[in-house]
Amino acid sequence: MKRLAIPAMLCLIGCGPSPKERPATVSTPVAVETVTVSSKEWPLIYEVTGTVRARTTTNISAKFMGYVREVKVQASDRVREGQLLVGLDSRDLDIGSRRAEAARESVRSAMPEADSAMAAAQANLDLARVTFGRMQELFQKKSISNQEFDEAAAKLKSAQAAQEMARGRRLQLDAKLAEVDQEVSSNLVSRSYANLRAPFAGVVTARSVEPGVLAIPGTPLLTLEREGTYRLEAPVDESRLGAIRVGQAVSVTLDNIDQPVEARVSEVVPSVDAASRSYLIKIDLPSLALLRSGVFGRAAFRLGSRSVLEIPAAAVMDQGQLQSVMVAESGVARTRLITAGQRSGARLEVLSGLSPGERLIFPLLPGMADGAKIEVRP
After folding, report:
1. 264: which strand partners?
2. Rounded mean pLDDT, 115-122
3. 61: exposed, middle or buried (C-beta count within 10 Å: 0-12, 13-18, 19+)?
4. Do 157 and 124 contact (CB within 8 A), yes or no?
5. pLDDT greater than 70 at residue 72
6. How many CA atoms lie less than 13 Å away from 218 in the CB half-sphere?
């Protein structure tokens, strides 16, 4: 009897009413804001890269061979115009200068004697002329012999020759003095070359000399560039030759300066490099304290405008190499992969993945997943 009772109880339990099923959970739409994807006119920018160069640069070198006595500056030192930079050993030039000075004094000391000789010769000539005039009158009156007249004429000629000789001697001294003066001046100029001075105010950008080194004419000892006069030199593709002209405004971005600076094209070198198929442009930069030669820079030329699809840059989600946005489609959030182009401030160009008129969810809500139900706020 007990064995029959247990199955009967199990049967009664199995035939009882089923438990009440729980209703499915219905998700609540999330309120979002959207922006409409639209086309905008963006400036057509052509960007080139280049290097900052000083407009005025010079190499300081010796004009004669000599040993360096002293170097007064280091690289990066600022110098003023006329400041002594390098001193050369000029003892040989000093000896030449003293010799020239001695020669000049010798010529000058001989001049008084030459002047006296010329004055005496002139006096003798005057006397000989007067005597000859008297003798000529007496000869015409037959008061003197031919011999006496010839002697007076000979004395006159001798006095004339002596006067010419004295005058020639004086002219020789004048010429010699002029020659020696020229030699003295030349030595003074050469002596000044022993002190190499700054031709203008600027910055020493390179030093390649030390005291005791033999300076060879034409070999750079220092490199000096003028401050405040810099320009950006950049190669430009030959296809852009007609689009860039002298005087054109350009925005320049420099590595060591936070804000872009406005500048203008000062020179376009028309010759094209055969290897790179580019030509060189030079852009004058404003005077800035941080500018130095060698700084990397970018120049952006505005060459018109173009139509682009733009969206807020903050609406883009980055996942590794992929970029996506959330769009509103029939009350549902959908993830859309896009290809981004250039960025302009807070706006981003979209090359593919979106079409004009689509509704982009922005701002993005944290944790929103693909397929979530949404309600677009008006």
Report:
1. 249, 284
2. 90
3. middle
4. no
5. yes
6. 0
Q: Taking residues 304-325, report their average pLDDT.
A: 87
User: Collapsing DSSP states into helix, strand and coil, what is residue 315?
Assistant: helix
What's the whole-model pTM score?
Answer: 0.55
At 335, give phi and psi (nearest 5°). -80, 135
Tokens of 25: 């959970």
Cα 284 to Cα 55, 156, 294, distances in angstroms: 9, 80, 15
Cβ neighbours of residue 21 closer than 8 Å, sequence gap 6 or more: none
| Position 304, amino acid | G
Q: Of how many residues is the chain composed?
A: 378
Return the amino acid letter for 315: A
Return the number of other C-beta atoms located less than 10 Å from residue 337's C-beta.
12
Q: Which two tokens stand for residue 288?
A: 């800035």
Is 7 exposed, middle or buried (CB count within 10 Å of its CB: 0-12, 13-18, 19+)?
A: exposed
Q: Does residue 198 contact residue 80 with C-beta atoms inside 8 Å?
A: yes
